[in-house]
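Duplicate of #3305? Posting structure anyway:
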């Protein structure tokens, strides 16, 4: 007989009696039973295969080798290593290719692809193909496109398949930063407004250091810029700057004691200082430009932040001192003051605006010293920010602004003020009486600027 329902094989000996004649039929029957039982058993050399599930009865297979094909089961050690899920990328910086072994025959939702990226992504829409199957675009889990360099070279990458088309969501990028938080290597938070890994909007004004002064080696054309850090103007990329010297009279070149001018030739103008960075290599530097909004960036530099301003007059940078204020702002003080407003027989009860020696296109708090004088008439005057409504100054009345300069017995009045300038670098002034005074003079002592983007 064959094995019974519990798998037991029993050889019935009742058919054979000692001293009796052997009957061929009975002997052959027993051999048939034995043949049937052996045929239903598994051979240790693999000649036979199961025809049904094999319950293990709470026992385990031991001493098994690692699986090598899709129909093998994996050893526990192989599972721990995860080697069958991982492969080194053999594609390009725009089209990654992974070939784990054993491979997959088709994509399924939830499949996790792991690979080492040989190249950093050079496009915002890199693709991934596994085992020669169709390629699909890699995005962040929120569906937003990657930035160039979001997958660094030699990074270990995990992507999850979200559709069989396929589409991929980047789950992790494993690469240790050289300095935590420096030059784009460590994200702070997610921001749905910008997508992908971005820095929280609350941090986008952060700035410290990066003060500057006339360079000791060439006070005429060079500036020394102190070390510091900031987020770029969009609040996306952190820029950490080492102390360096940049030259205004030479075209920009990377590094200290090198040119700093973005384009064109040096002239007598207002210049703006930019901290710049390139996200592919994390190199940072400083740049001079005539533009306060759109400097001509060097090749591959893709992030910037306005950090300073200076003025060149009579073929030399005007001497100054800069101090850092609370929150990373600047207080610039001119080493020698100049008469910025010198208006004779013009200031009357009609408001006028005049420029100070402060940055254009930036609202600053200017420190200004003002003198008004007239040889005949006494007067009441107001000097103020152009943002203040144009109302005649008065000595009385709650609805009208009070004057802040009044003539004395000597028919002159002088004051020192802090006041907000306009984007054109101007302040406003007028007198209350229907007269025109002899002189309106002002010097700019300096200004404060928050350096907020």
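Output from current build:
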């Amino acid at each position: 007989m064959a094995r019974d329902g519990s798998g037991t094989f029993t050889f019935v000996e009742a058919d054979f009696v000692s001293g009796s004649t052997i009957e061929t039929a009975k002997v052959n029957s027993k051999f048939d039973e034995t043949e049937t039982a052996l045929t239903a058993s598994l051979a240790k050399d693999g000649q036979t295969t199961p025809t049904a599930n094999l319950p293990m009865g709470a026992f385990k297979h031991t001493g098994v080798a690692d699986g090598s094909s899709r129909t093998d089961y994996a050893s526990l050690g192989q599972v721990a290593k995860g080697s069958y899920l991982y492969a080194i990328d053999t594609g390009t910086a725009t089209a990654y290719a992974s070939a784990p072994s054993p491979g997959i025959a088709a994509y399924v939702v939830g499949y996790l692809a792991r690979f080492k990226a040989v190249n950093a992504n050079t496009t915002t829409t890199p693709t991934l193909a596994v085992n020669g199957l169709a390629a699909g675009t890699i995005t962040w889990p929120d569906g937003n496109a990657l930035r160039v360099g979001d997958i660094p070279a030699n990074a270990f990458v995990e992507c999850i398949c979200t559709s069989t088309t396929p589409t991929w969501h980047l789950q992790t990028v494993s690469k240790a930063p050289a300095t935590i938080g420096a030059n784009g290597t460590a994200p702070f938070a997610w921001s749905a407004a910008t997508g992908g890994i971005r820095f929280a909007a609350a941090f986008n004004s952060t700035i410290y250091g990066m003060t500057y002064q006339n360079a000791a080696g060439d006070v005429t054309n060079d500036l020394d810029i102190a070390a510091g850090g900031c987020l770029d103007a969009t609040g996306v990329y952190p820029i950490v700057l080492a102390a360096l010297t940049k030259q205004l009279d030479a075209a920009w070149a990377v590094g200290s004691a090198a040119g700093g001018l973005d384009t064109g030739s040096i002239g007598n103008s207002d210049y703006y200082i930019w901290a710049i960075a390139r996200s592919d290599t994390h190199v940072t530097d400083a740049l001079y430009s005539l533009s306060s909004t759109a400097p001509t960036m060097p090749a591959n530099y893709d992030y910037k932040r306005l950090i300073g301003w200076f003025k060149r007059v009579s073929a030399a940078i005007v001497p100054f001192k800069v101090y850092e204020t609370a929150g990373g702002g600047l207080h610039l003080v001119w080493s020698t003051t100049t008469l910025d407003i010198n208006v004779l027989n013009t200031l009357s009860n009609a408001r006028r605006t005049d420029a100070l020696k402060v940055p254009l296109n930036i609202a600053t708090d200017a420190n200004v010293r003002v003198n008004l004088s007239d040889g005949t008439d006494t007067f009441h005057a107001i000097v103020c920010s152009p943002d203040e409504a144009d109302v005649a100054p008065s000595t009385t009345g709650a609805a009208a602004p009070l004057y802040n300069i009044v003539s004395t017995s000597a028919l002159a009045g002088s004051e020192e003020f802090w006041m907000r300038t306009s984007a054109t670098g101007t302040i406003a002034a007028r007198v209350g009486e229907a007269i025109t005074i002899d002189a309106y003079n002002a010097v700019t002592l300096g200004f404060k600027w928050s350096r907020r983007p």
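Confirmed duplicate; merging threads. The CA atoms of residues 160 and 414 lie 72 Å apart. The helical segments are 24-39, 76-81.
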